[in-house]
Amino acid sequence: MRAICSVVKNATLKVDGELISEIGRGMLVFCGFSAEDTPESIEKALKKVAGLRVMDDPDGKLNCSLADVDGEMLFVSNFTLYGDARKGFRPSFDKSMKFEPAQKLYNYALNRLKELGVRVQGGVFGGDMKIEALHDGPINIIIDSEVL
């Protein structure tokens, strides 16, 4: 699993003009799954995403987690995170997990984050999502289960 975790003041996700998810202060997380990922292989990455200390403490230092600041998460599937652009200009997505197993793993990950105590909302798997976010910092952290 690869995840890009961005600290935001707020974020919204719409599909066909309809508001699907909306969060206040927290993290916008784009996640993608490789063909080799399993619920067991992404567990450490999910715990890392849930507990990241990237929110400001009262002194302005990145020392707090979402739970510490009563923050929220918008967790969005993004298969292009496994795009490989080393050859040519059109990325290959051969390493990305196929649709059906990725959808199951995304739903598992979303539920697992809830079990870990994260106030999390999701997107529409495979949907044409329009996301607006007010990034804070900017602060962006990449989590990759292959290197944890």
Task: Write structural notes for this entry.
With 148 residues, this protein is an alpha/beta fold. The chain has 2 helices and 8 strands, in the order βββαβββαββ. It has helices at 39-51, 99-115; strands spanning 2-15, 18-23, 26-32, 55-56, 62-64, 72-77, 119-122, 129-144. The strands form 2 sheets. Strands 1, 2, 3, 6, 7 and 8 form a 6-stranded mixed β-sheet that branches. A two-stranded antiparallel ribbon has the order 4-5. Helix 1 crosses helix 2. The model has no long low-confidence stretch (mean pLDDT 97).
Report mean pLDDT, rounded to a whole number.
Answer: 97
**How much strand content do the residues show?**
35-45%
Report on the biggest sheet: 6 strands, mixed
- Give the terminus-to-terminus CA distance: 10 Å
Low-confidence stretches: none
Radius of gyration: 15 Å
Q: How many runs of DSSP E, i.e. beta strands?
A: 8
In percent, how helical is the residue content? 10-25%
Order of helices and strands: EEEHEEEHEE
Taken from the alpha-carbon principal axes, the silhouette is globular
Q: How many separate helices?
A: 2
Structural class: alpha/beta
